[in-house]
Amino acid sequence: MKKATLPTFAFSLLLLATACEAEKKAPQTEPTPALAPVTSSYTDITQDEFKNMESNLPEDVVILDVRTDPEVAEGMIDGAIQIDYRSENFADEVAKLDTSKTYIVYCRSGGRSSAASKLMTEELGFKNVNNLLGGYSEYSSEDFEN
């Protein structure tokens, strides 16, 4: 086996260094997509959290019931306003609300209120929206227990 001479070794290192430097400077043809964390734009609150604040809600807090008329006929949280999530003009009606206020949104069990909260924050510009987990079903069952 032949021994590499110093000039041959030096020349090989020079070629390697040049190739690496050229690779660093070469523009990337396809940008690497950034992975954004998935976050919700509203806050979920529990029944206990709501119960603790319910009697002392500031004036800028609006309780929004997004259930249907027949559901509301069975009862609703005191002071709530209703806009039916299933109505054709739901987004238009919600867009008329004051976006600077804080909202607590609820439905029967939490699905529609979650979707409504997402719509309010991501599409309609509301800043302070809270989704009541468990909805009116859990709220009213707790009322009977107390």
Overview of the structural elements:
21% of the residues are buried. A 5-stranded parallel β-sheet has the order 1-5-4-2-3. The protein has a single domain (43-145), classed as Rhodanese-like domain (Oxidized Rhodanese, domain 1, 3-Layer(aba) Sandwich). The protein has 146 residues and is an alpha/beta fold. It contains 6 helices and 5 strands; from the N terminus they run αβαβαβαβαβα. The model is unreliable at 6-16 (pLDDT under 50). It is globular and about 35 Å long. The protein has helices spanning 6-25, 47-54, 69-73, 90-95, 111-122, 135-145; strands spanning 43-45, 61-65, 81-82, 102-106, 128-132. The termini are far apart. 42% of the residues lie in helices and 14% in strands.
The total domain count is: 1
Shape: globular
Count of DSSP strands: 5
Low-confidence stretches: 6-16
How far is the N terminus from the C terminus? 92 Å
Strand order, sheet with most strands: 1-5-4-2-3
By secondary-structure content and strand pairing, the structural class works out as alpha/beta
Biggest pleated sheet: 5 strands, parallel
Give the name of the CATH superfamily.
Rhodanese-like domain
Radius of gyration: 29 Å
Give the topology, please.
Elements: H1 6-25, E1 43-45, H2 47-54, E2 61-65, H3 69-73, E3 81-82, H4 90-95, E4 102-106, H5 111-122, E5 128-132, H6 135-145
